[in-house]
What does this fold into?
Amino acid sequence: MKKMVVNSKYPGIEKFTASLPAIFDGSGRLLYMGRNLVKEFDVNGVTVVVKSFGKIPFINKFVYAWLRKSKAQRSYEYSGYFLENGFNSPEPVAWLDCIISGLLRESYYVSLHTGYSPLENILGTPKEESVLMELAAFAYNLHQKGIYHGDFNVTNILYEQSHGKTHFCLIDNNRTRFGRFSYKRAMQNFCRLTLERRHFGFIAKGYSQVSSLDESLVLEGILRYREGFVKKIESKARAKRFLRK
It folds into this structure.
């Protein structure tokens, strides 16, 4: 059984989307290979990016088939929500879930290609301070709308500069959470950023300028939750090494 939704703006993509289980492995231009695979395709004059969600734990194969929206479906819906609320994200084109014997076996998300660059490219350049301060204002606007990107890191935040202003674009949106603004949730949202202390200082400065929060309080919160996140990751890594012995 296939569950599929195609954006009505791109009816010519429907056949391509339905064929992804058969063609994905042997075609397209590879952009990223890890737990998930990301490839680029040209379809009827439109350049799209397809993310294939891999390594689905067994329990999630059942959960995503019947009890909860899959990552592909959430990616599609959340990206649309971002755009509706004035936040840039590659336009969602389609999603496809393949369910076999009651379990989710394959899952694909299709979006338009974007020419924006990863935020990590700006680090170490003369523009890093101004861009990170603008990012802080962008994040504050997200938080004020009750949007907390679940994987807010330097590869999922893309940017483009034009006419002296930085424009941001968010990808990998399926982990996004929604809720009212709070200091704790806002500061926690920066914990996945792999940045140096001075970078967090720029973010704290920018965040305090657009909010009513004190700059030192913002920096303290960001660093505290970043430290906690790093310790959690290190603890998981030690546990995995121990279990492999």
Notes: DSSP finds eight helices and eleven strands in the chain. The chain has a mean pLDDT of 96.
